[in-house]
């Protein structure tokens, strides 16, 4: 099988300060669909086009940020295999039983060298995208909110991103797509990695504090949908960090903005396909501004400092 | 590694009746870049954004059609492994030495049950896309012709598409993405398969004659680029089969048109991502018109009959 | 004042066979807003972005077609002036009192040489577009249906289009934008006229029978909205005549389709601006196919024959 | 005639510091076509789609800024009539003989109350857009540079914008489309005016110094072309002021950027149509940020201070 191992980002569990306000935001502004609530008070969402039961899980807390980010793997055998490989790499893993998260099978949980909690799982109930598997219709945007295609990737901040890179490449089979070097031309400031042919399934930036979230990202259909998203944000007075603009890195178009708890989110479109026979693209410290924001050609103040 | 085995379509060798006229068409109308000519008279092209040396090879002949369609695999070990698996499956394979095709390594060649020649290879020279791997710029369309992103897939016509499906799934690790059933609800009229997360890397339609080409397809950036392509075709009096329109199957937008030799080509944009944990979508005979052409909701006369 | 006299198309009264089915179509598929019903059973609609009370009026009848097409003029003085000019030109006019049509002032009604009923009026209640005139928001498509910007123009079929041209140019101050010549190179097959800077506010085709409607047209924001409209039509099994495609004439992109009574409608986007210092564009008979449908480069069977 | 009097912006004469560098910028980055040079050293340009000989004229100077902005009027009788009306309004006018500017007829020149030089003229040679008036093709972007549709409008800064408004409305027949009020709710900070159905043919902001230019603006086809323009700017290291973004005022999408002399230019797309029967939209001081930049919802530092 040409597409094996880790398939794609599956779910992100995000901490929010006010659940009612957050549910309103993730449904009416983001256009996600609420799919359930569990006994611990977590609220589950998926995009309209996703088939699996959930991709965003909100948990009420007194500080914003990300609890965990999970990847779906091909099957249960793959899950077992990756668990063993993680342990062989010296990573301590934990099993979270099926059902702890709604409609989700057993998960293998572990910590990244940057302190983030990552999970792998093989099973999540296919609740469908409303079109079925027989003679489907084309999806049309005829409803409230941004309505992204899918929860697509995240960017995390922490110290030991070299350790992360080694783990993702050697153990989980990810490929390095792009990297930014610091002034010394040697040390990575940031790396973008994929487990498929996307320009990124996860990315990370070197940072003084571990376990931090820069943003969770959602994919849009077109640059025109990026404009529609910005218009919806302004109509709803959502705090926009930057955009619409384009990244030099990945070449996607983008808006960074904040949920009501201050978690940064992204909607983006485009970006090239990366295959493992290609070389990674390297950005020098001098050009990092153009790499991150291709049109402004400089970092805004918030990019390297505001995380949750 | 999450992306293994067969990576993607690599090159299509297409027969043309008049080389000079064809070179003009593939450069000035299609916007491809000529990358070389070999001693046998074949002319090689790539898109501006492709990095490997060639993806389209034209060979002069007295009848149009496709000589062969090739896939790039991860590495030489994969090539050896797949060769053995093909033979174990009862497929006779042949080795084409490195250099027979410009800047291309050794190829494993075999026949599909539908009589088409398929090749696998691990090496083709990375001649770059003009942007390099360090601090690249974003590609901008500032030149003549359609300028697709890449040669993306093909649709072939032949008898034993069941045999093809078995070979692609069991031996080459492809996944079935969509299928159309005949009136009996059992027999496949057509199948769409992927070796990655694309909605299709190759597709096939059941047909009375073996070895036929329906179309070779090129990917565009956006629906607006589909319009631009149609405008360029009309300005150049290119024969358009159908479009701009949308496929129900894969949900991509599309134009079918003909090169000067009568080979059907496609430019398309979009289509959802397919992962191997998803079910294939099935189209009933009654809805095949909407499946193929979502807006017209009926096949045009040429779709099932005009092949080269 | 640089923009004087006749301003723009104001309302079209269209005959439908089944009012309930038609109201459902014009609201849920077209995305128009119902603004009222009068004592004679007519139902009034506007687009979401139009400010005047109505632009489409449906009347139940046993045959489809158009009762009348109306233009808004600058003010009451202009209405009086144009009435006198029409009479001086030998055109018999009739006054329809204010209130005969909901929220609409007095109308001057007359017959074109092609037998169509045209109206002029100066007053229609500004009921707003939901955004007001103070600190408005940007309109975002977050609801069901195609949701065009405005009712934009119509194309009528009849015999004496030369008489129409003279009347629109000499009496009503329209400008000829484009024309198609018959085989003789002299006679107009069709003409496109504007009272503003649009590529057309009304168009007409020479035809054996008077008083016929080819289509009423609605403007969309972008080519992507044209695709969305086609998708909505297919999801609702609306009969599409042709499209999405582009006109050579006016250069707009377009879909022709039919309401449940068989009246042809159009949604379109784009088209250049015409100013009265420019020359009209002339199409020869040999190139009329490309002029009407730029991508197909031939008329479809329905274009010259199917009218209501 | 429904479209009379002043038709549209015709030409802007812009001062540049280095002619060679400027010609390179306006051709290779802006994608304008050089149409001539006169004996005084001025260089003339038009867009590819404009038919009249020139719309941008560059003059070498030791300070940047705008020499004059001109409007084309319907015909010579209109020119005479407007000259008399200007004089009757107390405005001193001057005649610039035909030929002083290449391929341009006699001009009526006068000063606005804000100190800007405005010209009216009726004749400029139609050199065509390369498509002719018979059986034309659709324009396709297949060449270097941004390639706007037309020079569209300008925004000027000066003291007595109330005097400007009176002159444009009462003498030249313009209509007020939008206005921004200062904190007092009474005084205009800025006004947008049209002589056609565009959201603006000229705009003005109250400012301490007379005769200043904020920007000259060029129209693009689509939001995707706005992105292409931003990409071209970054590839060419053009200084971008802000964008891509959207204006709340006029609702157009936009990029502000600078030519090599520091003159601000704009490329924009969209904006609604305004007819003289509509009311002007008023923005309060509290919402001016959202009015100018709909997504950022605040003015950037440069908007009110950087002019040439």
From TrEMBL, chains A, B, C, D:
Catalytic activity as recorded in UniProt: catechol + O2 = (2Z,4E)-2-hydroxy-6-oxohexa-2,4-dienoate + H(+)
* Cofactor dependency: Fe(2+)
Give a yes or no for keyword Magnesium in this entry: no
Domain of life, source organism: Bacteria
- Quote the EC number: 1.13.11.2
**GO MF annotations for this entry?**
catechol 2,3-dioxygenase activity; ferrous iron binding
VOC domain boundaries: 8-123, 150-270
Its top-level enzyme class, in one word, is oxidoreductase
Is the Hydrolase keyword given for this protein?
A: no
Q: Which Pfam families match?
A: Diox-like_N, Glyoxalase
Keywords on record: Aromatic hydrocarbons catabolism, Dioxygenase, Iron, Metal-binding, Oxidoreductase, Repeat
Q: Which PROSITE patterns match?
A: EXTRADIOL_DIOXYGENAS, VOC
Q: How does it assemble?
A: Homotetramer.
| Similarity comment | Belongs to the extradiol ring-cleavage dioxygenase family.
Question: What is the protein name given in its UniProt record?
Answer: Metapyrocatechase
Query: What organism is recorded for this protein?
Result: Brachymonas denitrificans DSM 15123
